[in-house]
Design a protein that fits this description.
Elements (H helix, E strand, L loop, with lengths): L1 H44 L3 H8 L8 H14 L3 H28 L14 H16 L6 H25 L7 H4 L3 H11 L6 H14 L6 H10 L7 E10 L4 E7 L3 H14 L11 E7 L7 E6 L2 E5 L1 E5 H11 L1 H26 L5 H16 L14 E10 L1 E11 L2 E2 L4 E7 L4 E8 L9 E5 L1
Parallel strand pairs: 1-11
Antiparallel strand pairs: 1-7, 2-3, 4-5, 4-8, 6-7, 8-9, 8-10, 11-12
Length: about 450
C-alpha cells in the first residue's frame, strides 16, 4: 500500500513539473519572434537602419535564425551594402533548399508541438523572392550573376505553379492561378535589362520581352519594351539607359487566425494521421489556429523621377509581392489547417495513451492532472507567424533613355492625390550605349537608407 502511495506521489510530482514546464515554454517562446519582428519593422520603416540591424543581431532561438537573417539582408540592401545582402541571401537560399528534403520528417515530429519548433524553411513566395533579391543585390554591385539569378526566379515560380496544379488535381479543387502567373515577369525583365547592352543577345532579349508581355499583359511598358527589342536598339547615339528600380510599400506579414476545418483539409489531415500513427479523425473538429498572410496598409502609389523640376516619368509595378504572398497562402490554406487538425488529434491521442499506460482509473488525481496537462498542451498551440517581414509590397521599375553625362535625378514618393514626402536626390552617370541601374527603397513617404547606382559594363 505504501509503495502504491509513493508511486502515485512521484507520478503526480513528475507530471506537475512537466505541466509547469509546458506552460512556461509555451508562454516564453510565443512572443519573442513576434516582438522582434515588430521592432525590426518599426525601425526599418522609420529609416533607423542601425537600430534595425541591432535588432537582427540579438541572440535568439536557432529555429528563428534564418528568418531573422532574411530581414537583415533587406536592411543591408537599404543601407547600401548589396554584397553583404547577397551573401546572406545565398546562405539562406541554400539552407531552404536543404530543408525541402527534410521537411516531411521534421513536420511529422512537430505534430507533438507545433511548427514554431521547426527550423524556418520559408514559404514558397519567399523562396521566389530570395532569388529576386539576389538578382537585385548582385545587379547593384557586380552584375555578373544577375542572369543566373533571374533564371532561378523563373524556374522557382514555375515549380510553385506546377506544385499547386498537382495539389489541386489531387484534392479535386478548381484553382485559378492567374494572380500567380502575373507575378512571373520579374526574372525575364531583369534578364532583358542585362542582356540588351549586347547586340549579340537581342534574340534572348526579345524572348524575355515576349515572356513579360505574355505573363503580365497589364504591365504598362510591356508593349513598348517588346517593340524596341524587335528593332535591336539599346538607345539612340549619344544616349544611355537608366533603369530605376524601386522597392515600394510595406510588405506582407502573417497574423494568427482561427479557422474551421474544411472538407478538403480533413481529408488531408486523415492522410497525415495515417502516415504518422494509428489515429482517427473524430466526428467533430473544433476551429484551429493558423497563420494568415495579410497585406499592409499602403500610402505610396508610385515613385516619380524628375530632373531640374521636370518629371521624366513614374515607376510602374513589375511584381506585386503582397498579392503573390496572399494568394499562395490562400491556395495552401487547406494544408495548413490539416496540419493543425492532425497536431490536435495527435496530442489528444498521446494524453489518452498516457492515461492508459498509468492505469488512471485507480488514481483520479493523475487522471485529472493528465487531463489538465492535455488541455494546457493544446492551449499552447499557436500559429506559426514567422515570415520575411521586411519585404516590400511591390517591385516597380522605370526605364529612361538619357543623354550622356552626369544627371541629378530626384526620386519622390507619390500617392494618387500628389507627392507624399521630400524628394531624394541621386547623381547618375549616363554613358553612351551603357545601362545604369538605380535602386531606391521607399516603404512609405520617402527613401530610406541610400539610393544605389551601378553602371553595368
Amino acid at each position: 500500500m505504501i509503495c502504491e502511495i509513493e508511486k502515485t506521489q512521484k507520478a503526480s510530482s513528475y507530471l506537475s513539473i512537466l505541466l509547469l514546464l509546458c506552460l512556461v515554454c509555451s508562454v516564453g517562446c510565443g512572443a519573442s519572434h513576434a516582438d522582434r519582428a515588430v521592432s525590426i519593422r518599426n525601425a526599418y520603416y522609420a529609416g533607423r537602419l542601425d537600430a534595425a540591424i541591432a535588432h537582427t543581431e540579438l541572440k535568439g532561438k536557432e529555429h528563428d535564425a534564418d528568418v531573422v537573417k532574411l530581414n537583415r539582408a533587406m536592411v543591408y540592401l537599404a543601407a547600401g551594402e548589396p554584397a553583404a545582402s547577397e551573401q546572406l541571401l545565398r546562405e539562406i537560399r541554400d539552407r531552404f533548399d536543404h530543408h525541402e528534403d527534410k521537411t516531411l520528417i521534421q513536420k511529422a515530429a512537430a505534430l507533438a508541438t507545433d511548427d514554431r519548433k521547426l527550423p524556418y524553411a520559408g514559404e514558397e513566395y519567399e523562396k521566389i523572392l530570395i532569388r529576386t533579391m539576389l538578382a537585385i543585390s548582385n545587379m547593384m554591385y557586380d552584375g555578373g550573376d544577375v542572369n543566373a539569378y533571374a533564371l532561378q526566379v523563373t524556374a522557382k515560380q514555375q515549380e510553385l505553379l506546377h506544385s499547386l496544379q498537382e495539389k489541386s488535381k489531387e484534392n479535386e479543387l478548381q484553382v485559378d492561378l492567374g494572380i500567380l502567373n502575373r507575378q512571373m515577369a520579374v526574372g525575364s525583365y531583369f534578364r532583358a535589362a542585362i542582356l540588351e547592352t549586347s547586340p549579340l543577345d537581342y534574340d534572348d532579349v526579345q524572348r524575355c520581352r515576349v515572356q513579360v508581355a505574355s505573363w503580365q499583359p497589364d504591365f504598362r511598358d510591356a508593349k513598348i519594351d517588346l517593340a524596341r527589342a524587335e528593332t535591336g536598339r539599346h538607345s539612340p547615339a549619344g544616349h544611355g539607359v537608366v533603369y530605376v528600380i524601386t522597392l515600394v510599400g510595406k510588405g506582407p506579414f502573417k497574423e494568427e487566425a482561427v479557422e474551421l476545418p474544411t472538407t478538403v483539409s480533413l481529408l488531408i489531415a486523415d492522410r497525415i494521421l495515417s502516415a504518422v500513427g494509428k489515429y482517427e479523425l473524430p466526428p467533430n473538429i473544433a476551429p484551429v489556429k493558423v497563420p494568415v498572410v495579410v497585406r499592409s496598409h499602403q500610402r505610396i502609389e508610385s515613385v516619380a523621377v524628375s530632373e531640374q523640376g521636370k518629371v521624366l516619368g513614374s515607376t510602374t509595378t513589375l511584381m506585386d509581392i503582397s498579392s503573390l504572398a496572399v494568394e499562395q497562402n490562400r491556395l495552401q490554406r487547406n494544408e495548413v489547417i490539416a496540419r493543425a487538425v492532425a497536431r490536435r488529434i495527435t496530442k489528444k491521442g498521446a494524453v489518452y495513451a498516457a492515461k492508459s499506460g498509468l492505469a488512471v482509473q485507480n488514481s483520479p488525481e493523475i487522471d485529472l492532472l493528465l487531463t489538465v496537462a492535455g488541455v494546457a498542451w493544446e492551449f499552447s498551440e499557436r500559429a506559426d507567424t514567422r515570415c520575411w517581414s521586411l519585404l516590400p509590397d511591390r517591385i516597380q521599375v522605370l526605364r529612361l533613355e538619357l543623354p550622356v553625362g552626369q544627371h541629378q535625378l530626384d526620386l519622390s514618393a507619390h500617392m494618387r492625390n500628389g507627392r507624399l514626402g521630400n524628394a531624394s536626390p541621386v547623381s547618375v552617370d549616363v554613358q553612351d550605349g551603357k545601362t545604369t541601374f538605380v535602386l531606391g527603397v521607399l516603404p512609405e513617404d520617402r527613401v530610406i537608407g541610400k539610393v544605389l547606382t551601378k553602371i553595368y559594363r
